[in-house]
Amino acid sequence: MKLQSPLGLDICCLPFLRDVFREFVGTTLFLFTSLSSVVLWPHLGDQSWDTSTPDPLMAMDAVHECVPDPLHVALAFGASIALTCVCLDGVHLNPAVTLALVVGLRVSPWQAVLYVGAQLLGAITACGLLFGMAPVSAKDKLGINELASGVNLYQAFSVETAVTFQLVLCVLAVTHPKSPFFSLAPAALGLSVTLGHLIAIGFTGCGMNPARSFGPAVLTLNLENHWVFWAGPCAGAILAWLMYDLLLYPRWTGLSDWIIEFRQVFLTSPSKQPTNPQSNTEI
């Protein structure tokens, strides 16, 4: 996908609109399947079974509840992101990833606005579907990100920054066309998402993706501390871009060179823009 002109001359073309639609579908699929693992489903029921039966499953005289543990949730999110990336190659699914690609001059700001809009709409759609299917007792949560008891805002921000940093760094590394792990990108990204959840679930429920936090917050009308789940991932994404593009595999000698190229690509007339910008890196 090529960088677009500041006037968005190609934004209305069919291929780009199809990309935006794929962001919507991908985010809906990813968040519906993954957030389903977080919902606390109801009791199986109060039933008195005949304890004389040799079948242990029939000897249950207790109420059971499906309560997901951190490993359960982490694996669900990791598997979901991996399979979604296999089915819809090139989607971002995460506003923080899109931000990193914008500052890396791989996606234009004008594209990013529509991508992020599609991601947020997909998040609301996914949570709306889940809201309709979830039991009444679970409708007030829907996997909303919340600070755990004893965790302050600074700690939550730091954790969200750290887990998003490793995710975006993985995105930039494995999705580069010349990466030896390019063909394994979906699996690597799934592992990265799983790792992030194993780290952050105990602190914040693991946002790592503003769209993932946005959907449940909107459906439950609970925006308490919601800014943390935007600020942390966005900070982590920018730090990962700085690490990858300026330190590990420098594309510019410094920020001044980046500013010059940013102005050349996005803030000048189309005739003065580069004809062969660097290949876009996406997930």
Automatic annotation (TrEMBL):
Question: Which Gene Ontology terms of cellular component type are present?
Answer: membrane
Q: Does the keyword Zinc apply?
A: no
Alphabetized GO MF terms: ammonium channel activity; carbon dioxide transmembrane transporter activity; glycerol transmembrane transporter activity; water channel activity
Q: Membrane-spanning residues where? A: 24-44, 71-91, 112-133, 153-174, 181-203, 227-249
Q: Which keywords label this protein? A: Membrane, Transmembrane, Transmembrane helix, Transport
Places the protein is found: Membrane
Report any one BP term from Gene Ontology. renal water transport
Pfam families associated with the record:
MIP
How is this protein positioned relative to the membrane? Multi-pass membrane protein
InterPro entries (UniProt xref): Aquaporin-like (IPR023271), Aquaporin_transptr (IPR034294), MIP (IPR000425), MIP_CS (IPR022357)
Under SUPFAM superfamilies, the record lists: Aquaporin-like (SSF81338)
Among PANTHER family, the record links this protein to: AQUAPORIN TRANSPORTER, AQUAPORIN-1
Task: Give the similarity note.
Answer: Belongs to the MIP/aquaporin (TC 1.A.8) family.
Q: What is this protein called?
A: Aquaporin-5-like
Q: Which organism is it from?
A: Astyanax mexicanus (Blind cave fish)
* Gene behind this protein: AQP5
